[in-house]
Amino acid sequence: MKTARKIAHQQKQPYYKWKRKIFAVLLMSLCFGFLLLIMQSQYNRITTLTSMHAQKPKIAFLFIARNRLPLDIVWDAFFQGGENRFSIYVHSRPRFLFNKATTKSNYFLNCQVNDSIQVDWGEASMIEAERILLRHALEDAYNQRFVFLSDSCIPLYNFNYIYDYIMSTSTSFIDSFADTKEGRYNPLMAPVIPVQNWRKGSQWVVLTRKHAEVVVNDNIVFPMFQWHCKRKSLPEFWRDQPFPADTSKEHNCIPDEHYVQTLLAQEGLEEEITRRSLTHSSWDLSSSKDRERRGWHPVTYKYSDATSMLLQSIKEIDNIYYETEHRREWCSRKGKPSACFLFARKFTRPAALRLLDTSALEL
After folding, report:
1. What stretches pass through the bilayer (predicted)?
2. Are 290 and 221 in contact (CB under 8 A)?
């Protein structure tokens, strides 16, 4: 009987040994798998940190367009030099869609904001469109500069030059000066915006991320512009509005020429801006027979105007004089004299394509 039990016990021993071995193998496999997970997690973390370190800050190009972008081919050539260093956002009229039928550049596909509004010249809707573009662009943490451009703007230099120019300074570029001559300031704004903070300038600004956030978060100055800064009604618009009793008594204010400048003055941030625009416009004060309309819109460059001499004359501008402040702004970059402008407007499509075809634009 004892012999039988001994034999049975001996037969069970190999079974228990194999069971222990299988358990040990499984335990080792679990430990090894856990170790791999930890190593993978550390690798992903290091890869992410390396990627963040390698990713350069980006410039967000914010286009305000009526419908399509007629100069998309010019910008297509420009953006080819700057992969991973830029973002594009386009505000066009509601229900207009950028697709392969409406743009010849793949860079502008899937760049259109989905909450655009109807924009009317001389109305607060223009600055609301700017705020919409900024809200979208600020969602990308890598966007550190924000450049506003119209659908008639062209770049004057290649991407690398413009990127280095803009990123080499910690300031925003904002054309801003005291508005003491035209009487656009509405005294009804005084309780919120004192007249000493009233500024004028071009809407084509370049903002730092900090200043872009100031614009988006503003809920004090913007309502004042909606209520008290409106353009004077013009005869061509009277069919859509009640006929004014006395146009001479109407207040005249163009919101997009005052808003950002006044807001940053109001916030005490003028020491953080370079007070000039990087976008050139040519204002022909004698082009209209109507004295009130003179200077309302810049010159539009047509095909015959588009020459290398024109571009060179713009590039050679190295200072800007502000008459109301008796101030001359000398343009510099990295502490050295430089050209004032990186972009120019207003160019028709034939004019811009001629510049591109003749290699006048060195993109």
Report:
1. 21-39
2. no
